[in-house]
Amino acid sequence: MIILDAKYIALAQMAVGGGLMGMAYALVAYGFQLTYAAGKAVNFGQGELVMLGAFAGISLAGTGLPYWVSVLGAMVAGAVLGWFVERVAVRLALKQHNEGWILLTIIVGLFALSSVENIWGRDDRPFPAPWPAGALDFFGISVTWPELAIAMGAMGIMTLVELAKRYTMAGIAVQAVSADPEAAELCGVRSRSAISLSWAVSGAAAAFAGTVIGPVTTVGPTMAAALTLKAFSVAVVAGLDSGFGLVIAGIALGAVENLSGYVLGSGWREAPGLILLILALALRPQGVFGKKIIRKV
Amino acid sequence: MFTGVDLGLRENTAERIVRIVLFIALGALPAFWHGQYALGLLTLMAVYGVLLIGLDATVGYLGQVNLAQAALFGLGAYASALAVQAGAYFPLALLAGIIAALLPGAALALPALRLEGPQFALSTLSFATLSVIVLNESETITHGALGLSIVRPSLFTVALDARGFYWLCLVLLFMSWWVSQILLKSRFGLSIEALRDSPTATDALGIGTLRHKVLAFAWGSALAGLAGALHALNFGYLQPAAFGYDLMVMLLLGVVFGGRRSQWGAFAGAAVVAMLPNLLSNRTLFSGLVSSGCVLTLVPILRSLISRRVPAFKEAAPAVAMAVALALSLFASNVEEWRKGIFALFLFAAVVGLPDGLAGAFASALHRLIRFTPDPLPPATGGIRSAGISVSKPLQVFKLSKSFGGVRAVDNVSLDIGQNEILGLIGPNGSGKTTFINVVSGLYAPDSGSVEIAGTRPLPGSLMSAFSAGAARTFQNLQPFSGLTALESILVCQHDGGKSEAMGWLRMVALEEKARQRCSELSYGDLRFLEIARALATRPRLLMLDEPAAGMSKPDIARLVDLIASIKCAGVPILLIEHHQDVVAELCDRVAVMDGGRLIALGTSAQVRRNPKVIEAYLGADEEQTSVQGTSEPQLC
To answer: For strand B237-238 and strand B148-149, is the pairing parallel, antiparallel, or unpaired?
Structure first.
């Protein structure tokens, strides 16, 4: 085996740690994809849903419930909130064919943020998780259990939803609605219900992301805005209609972020990712893995 | 029925009077409302006013969700503070602020060209986040999170006290307001509203998307920079964190709450954003305000209950939001802690309940109470006789091909139109007719082959370049400028002439009476005619009509046939796609038939109809549909 320079090992360590965290961005971004496919809208308050999910998980775990039950509870809460956002914020505005839904989802997120600050306080909290202490070692690069949980959890959820989309009636109905809502209605699919379902699943995925990110970082009101931006970047760079491309985009963003924090200093952590995002948008507006849009008149 | 009081005033005049009164009142206010604190609030309101009028240019008029305004505000503030530190005079500090925001702000128009809705919002959000990071981390210049302190320099020789500075801000607000209004009511303003509704149509009619977007962003950002400079000179202390996402959300919501596409709305939004934190600290005042808001939101619910139906979600939601806000203001232990939440509830109620904001709601109430004298319309001049610019070879297409994936939509088509000719282009659905027009008009770049319009070769795939060569077109799926009136739709397309010429074009299509109606209120048939008038107003050398009779009623089709015949008489060559075979037979000098992307026949209407290939292409179609009732000769001029 080649013994690598300590410096390269440290860099690789950073990249791997960031990449694993990036899986969480990919999971939240996946939530964007789900709602975009179904109703051509995304939740600009998705970060707040992640945060709410994490806090719900903390509170449930605080009552003495086992970890898995509180994660499940958080997901249910997330699903309800996702459904709620679609009902109160998106449906009305999309009917008026304007960008009002962007504002309304920001508004609902703002209310959520304020509620969290008042109910759970402004301080960051640790998220209790039953993972063993210590780390696994791969060729000198250590991976902690909570980090591994992010990656496994994100892949697990995405795989489950993708399978459900393909092999259940509800999933096929959702796909039909995303292809053409009117045609789906004519075939007896309620497109409203399908869109609501997508938002609920998206909310559940966001809440789950909160419960797996919590043990690695901490949980606090400040996590929301940054997460929305990162996850949305991942979704757009990958292409809002691109499927698993966002896993690659998520891992890349997480790794770039961690590396630039290490090399340039923690304040610059997010800058290269943002520059890459702007470049990606400039060069391929439809996303790196997205399909080209043809203007029709 | 009450139809409103007639004041015998024009709306513009009334607005100007009220605005001037407002500014005099605002200027006199410090004399009655004493104290540094009140003065500080008023100054903040004036600064936010400038900022929001700028934001409204992009968010309201251009319709782009621009999340960078707070960051541009910050860049302007820092630039002017650094200029002051370097010893710049007062006006120079303002200028530094404007330039520092204007340059990156104008560059935001470039992503706005290619990205839509959420993607564009994201690109501005990333720019904003990046700016705050740079301000935070360039510690040697900005002192990072520690903050930057400056002392306000004197204006020429006058050392401004707080009151003097307030008056300066007020004057600048007034000027920004005034210039914005002139700018956005002018042809430039009409153009950016048009391109919000249909960027394809504005490019195809030569209005020019790029130029207008860059200008709108530049103007909005210049105001952000000016506001930033005033902010820096007002507070004398800056921190990067103040220009982050929170401020951006407040600004955006301020514009929406006040009312988009209105300087009054932006000003109202600024007042709310500036005053709200202080309203929240006074509990009685605040509860009173929330209660009255609550009552207002109950009106639509009561209205629906009176007419005995269950209130719709849209009517009930604002009241629920306001009820929650009321409960919070009464029972929450610390209202200020709930600041963001209550603001969110307010905004929710406003966005859902008043889609046009405070200003919009106020304006519509006012229009119910007062009848203003409308601007007089000038008599129509010009019109169809002035349309023609004769060219010998309006269109020459040589071996044109265009594929989408594996589909050859246009396959090796060569075609030309002679002087003063109407060429019909027919073929079954999906035969490539619209794609052909789309390539000729520059919406798509061809894979191979060439297009020559009136003797020049436009850049492939550029609508603007095809337009400059002399092409103008209409669209199979209507592309109206929904926010503009019929008259304004013509005005933005005209490159010379004023309102009377525009009226002339409307007279040509018998829409004179509807000149003041918004396109969103016009009927389908009217819009089809308006598209033709719009295209002719650009004085084209080649007019392309894509299924102008689609969906029209019988009498309208008869009018259309007369119109097209008279356009031909005026000397404008026409490429006409049409499914109504009787229209084609009556109007067209020659008819080209496409099938599966290829040109299968070309000749007079009668020749083409006998062509076995054409009969085969249409096989399955009813005999009666493809044949013509009566054999009318092409109308003679």
So the answer is: antiparallel
